[in-house]
Specification:
Length: 227
Amino acid sequence: MKKYYLHNGTEQDGPFYISQLKKKGITRETEVWYKGLSDWTKADQIEELKELFEQSPPQIPPIKQQGTEQTDQIDTKPKKSFLGRNLIKLGLIAIGILGVFAFFFMFTINNPKSDPSNYQKPKMTIEETENSNPKQFLSVEGEYNESFWGNKFKVKGIITNRASKADYKDIIIQIKYYSKTKSVIGSEEYTIYEVFPPNQEKAFKLDAEKYKDVASIKLNIIGAKPN
């Protein structure tokens, strides 16, 4: 069976069988093409389509009204009807716009993804994560003794870098001094200017300030820099 294409002057539609063309409401002037035609052709010039138009009687021409009074009625009634239809259309458009805004508002409230506070930042790489928080991957342990002259503490220890990718440097160690009653006597900070590779331990030594009546000390890492 033939398949027909329609053209409204700007767009092409189809293909359709002849039974479907009856529902498309084509007119005699509708441009039609099917395989075998060299160009678009008006529907009433195609033999098998003529039957689509022979079933519809021609339109009845409008009755001309005579007289001033009847002419006024013809002029005024369509205007009122046209205005009424336009008001209805405007009302429907306004309702549709309000409906779209209402739907968007409800979707925004109920959709957690639309909340800027729930915006998910791109995931960082392992190295970026480790570089952003060195203290999370560094630990220190050690011991101390008095110096030969008794005016310093000789601190020896090991710094462990548990990161899998990141190197760290300039490790800042805080030493807290405690009394026999576990009270904090004081604290000092010291920087170890070395590079600590990932997944490795590294020994260090430093001379620390000596406080009076110190019973114990505690070492903490309070800072470091990605290398």
